[in-house]
């Protein structure tokens, strides 16, 4: 009786994103901002579900997303936060830049 999975609709792409899909998602979010993820795919002309678009944006496409190794300052901050918060990775990550 619960919700149906988001990407089991007909005509919905699954798997790897193409460069064109990434470009469409980026352009739509730049023009309209982050908003209703459920209606975004149709408005942006994507054959993806809203959840897939949200996760792609948050985990791969955000301009402020930091890639690469941690700096010494970030390492020190992680150690300090770990001593305060313990093994709470999501809380620690929420306090790090990018």
List the helices and strands and how they pair.
Elements (H helix, E strand, L loop, with lengths): L18 H14 L7 H5 L5 H12 L10 H14 L3 H6 L4
Defining key terms:
98 residues, mainly alpha, Arc Repressor Mutant, subunit A, 5 helices, elongated
Outline the structure in words.
- Residues 9-65, 66-98 form the HTH myb-type domain.
- InterPro entries: Homeodomain-like_sf (IPR009057), Myb_dom (IPR017930), Myb_TF_plants (IPR015495), SANT/Myb (IPR001005).
- Its main location: nucleus.
- This is Transcription factor.
- One of its GO terms (molecular function) is DNA binding.
- With 98 residues, the protein is mainly α.
- It has helices at residues 19-32, 40-44, 50-61, 72-85, 89-94.
- The relative contact order is 0.12.
- Helices cover 52% and strands 0% of the residues.
- It is built from 5 helices and no strands.
- It folds into 2 domains: 19-61, Arc Repressor Mutant, subunit A, CATH 1.10.10; 67-97.
- The chain is elongated, with a radius of gyration of 17 Å.
- The model has no long low-confidence stretch (mean pLDDT 89).
